[in-house]
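I have been asked to look over a protein record a colleague put together. Alongside the sequence sits a line of tokens, each denoting a local backbone shape. Please read both lines and tell me whether the tokens look consistent with the sequence. Take the sequence as given and treat only the tokens as open to question. I have pasted the whole thing underneath without changing anything:
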Amino acid sequence: MLLDIRPRPTAPWEPAWALHPTVLIGTAVLGALYLWGIGPARRRWNLGPPAEGWRVLSFMIGLAVLLASLNGPIHDLSDYYLFWVHMAQHLLLTLVLPPLLLAGLPGWLLEPLLRRPPVRVVGRVLTHPVVAGVLFTAGLAVWHTIAAYDLMMREHGVHVTTHLVFMVTAVLFWWPVMGPGTSLPRLTPGMAMLYLFLAQIPMQILGAIITFADELLYTWYAAAPRTWGLSALEDQKIGGLLMWIIGNLWIWGAMSVLFFQWAREERGARSEEEIAHTA
């Protein structure tokens, strides 16, 4: 049996804005690298045109999501009090954060790095839809097994590693849909819709299993001080519903965007054909 290593609160939750140095430093480094890349590095090596304002805004919102997810009330509630807040945190880190960061990257920003053959080969393997989809869904499935989840909650280092795995595999997962540049090709809108449809099935199954469980799966929350009048089992069912319903609605929303993009491209192609026939 695993030892309960992490200290646990015994009093009800009170709002607080605890800040964690590793998260602050990591976010600051990521933001500094981005600003250096789109600013001094771009000008020094003439990498490309200035980054559009909406891209910079998207990346900065992504950094804000990262900070909010891993600090303050979300961190404390998810770590010690409520399973459903932990599921919301995971959805932010895997479904909201990566698209914001990827949308913020100009296509030219990573091209110098990807021109190196070893880097390009590894990148193409990791962002291949089959590999990226399997890595992402396998990570979610493994870390939501009872034994792995219990280990993650009791060992802080394992918990940090889990979040890193979620974020990295989520970036890989979203890359075939909206990755920047041409060195690592992304899917056509039609194929990207199929990719997302298949990838969301394991999340639906996992969310349904958690929702319909008649007993508490994740015992870490059994001893948590009850918050907002929720029993541990009610808390677990809400968390399952978040993954099952909200998570998949988000992916279906992305599929809707791809559908309209696909329809727009088809209309453009037909218009070009009509012009060619009349010329």
Q: What stands out?
A: The mean pLDDT is 93. The two ends are 77 Å apart (CA to CA). Residues 196 and 241 are 19 Å apart (CA to CA). DSSP finds twelve helices and no strands in the chain.
